[in-house]
């Protein structure tokens, strides 16, 4: 391995040379060398230099470099909002939302100015933790600081409340936003669908269409999920038609295809589900699982088993959702031999059998297949693990 490049020597103008080096610097070790040189030249309290140095450390987004960026920033007075924002963003990029919130609180305590990006990053940190109390306090900051008309802030708040399942607050943010864009409409449709309010999701989509906005792939996926929950075949077909007219299937969007397969399967319209499944140029484990579960839930058990075997033959690894569907199918077939095979398959392929869902499914399957002894063994194993 070749040695890491060192920084070049400074020329007669330290300020210009250090600025140039910081702009070119790509490596953490080089950055530490530049930092040491800045200290020895006495430029550490020069605001443009200090700001660039802090940003360079923060943008590497490692715990050590974020810490260094914060340490330098605390020792320099007068750093601008952009510099503090890079520290918060660096912690977020490194998946440290708690530290990002602590920096935001520090900025507020010092009475420093915040902008829409500061608030957006802080709200995202709350969403990632998640902390609803901190999120509501940030909402109050947004109102007090006069950012209520900033659509990126309102969208961040809406998404945060959607993650928490605080749908009343989410709707309030949406209603208070004077100008809503497609991203905001998509977010509220998705939140209602994900939190099992399919009627609300469809109602918002109707209002969205009345507002003159076109549905995109994300909207269609959310609405098809709502139709699946309601087994609303007529609405699902209408959305399918919209997706065709809007050329949303032309790019072979696997998420839209999967949602259509799932919707038609849930509605018992397996001919359409199967046709779409066959049309998919590239399916994934979700595609296969949706089709297998569709056959199983509509009591086409042999077809479901054959599809699972085909999935195995094509070396597509199932996930836990697939396995739970296959266990359910085995329970319906009530085949002692098949139940034993599934048990061995799960153990052989390293699936986690200790989860409540998996244990309950296996107990139910073995009991229905007549293997009461095995069902009791699983039950006793669950009791011992508690």
TrEMBL record:
Gene Ontology molecular function: RNA binding
Pfam families documented for this protein: PPR, PPR_2
Keywords: Repeat
Superkingdom, taxonomy of origin: Eukaryota
PPR repeats: 80-114, 181-215, 253-283, 284-318
GO biological process, one term: RNA modification
Alphabetized Gene3D superfamilies for the sequence: Tetratricopeptide repeat domain
Name under which the protein is recorded: Putative pentatricopeptide repeat-containing protein
Organism: Prunus yedoensis var. nudiflora
């Amino acid at each position: 391995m070749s040695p890491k490049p060192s920084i070049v020597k400074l020329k007669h103008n330290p300020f210009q040379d250090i600025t140039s080096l910081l702009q070119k610097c790509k490596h953490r070790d080089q950055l530490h060398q530049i930092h040491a040189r800045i200290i020895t030249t006495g430029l550490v309290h020069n605001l443009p230099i200090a700001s660039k140095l802090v940003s360079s450390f923060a943008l590497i987004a490692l715990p050590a470099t974020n810490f260094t960026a914060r340490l330098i920033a605390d020792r320099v007075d007068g750093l601008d909002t952009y510099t503090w924002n890079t520290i918060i963003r660096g912690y977020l990029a490194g998946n440290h939302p708690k530290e990002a919130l602590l920096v935001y609180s520090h900025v507020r305590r010092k009475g420093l100015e915040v902008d829409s990006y500061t608030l957006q990053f802080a709200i995202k940190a709350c969403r990632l933790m998640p902390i609803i109390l901190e999120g509501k306090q940030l909402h109050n900051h947004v109102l007090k600081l006069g950012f209520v008309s900033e659509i990126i802030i309102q969208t961040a708040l809406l998404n945060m409340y959607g993650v928490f399942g605080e749908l009343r607050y989410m709707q309030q943010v949406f209603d208070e936003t004077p100008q809503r864009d497609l991203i905001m409409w998509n977010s509220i449709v998705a939140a209602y669908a994900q939190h099992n309010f399919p009627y609300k999701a469809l109602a918002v989509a109707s209002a969205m269409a009345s507002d003159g906005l076109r549905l995109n792939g994300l909207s269609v996926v959310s609405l098809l999920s709502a139709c699946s929950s309601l087994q609303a075949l007529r609405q699902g077909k209408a959305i399918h038609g919209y997706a065709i007219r809007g050329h949303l299937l032309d790019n072979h969007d696997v998420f839209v295809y999967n949602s259509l397969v799932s919707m038609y399967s849930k509605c018992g319209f397996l001919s359409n589900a199967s046709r779409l499944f066959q049309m998919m140029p590239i399916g994934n484990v979700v595609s296969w699982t949706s089709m297998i579960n569709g056959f199983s839930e509509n009591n086409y058990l042999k077809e479901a088993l054959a599809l699972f075997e085909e999935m195995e033959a094509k070396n597509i690894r199932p996930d836990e959702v697939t396995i739970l569907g296959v266990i359910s199918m085995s329970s319906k077939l009530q085949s002692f031999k098949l139940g034993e095979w599934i048990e061995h398959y799960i153990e052989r392929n390293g699936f986690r059998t200790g989860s409540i869902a998996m244990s309950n499914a296996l107990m139910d399957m073995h009991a229905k297949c007549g293997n009461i002894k095995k069902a009791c063994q699983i039950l006793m194993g669950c009791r011992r693990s508690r």
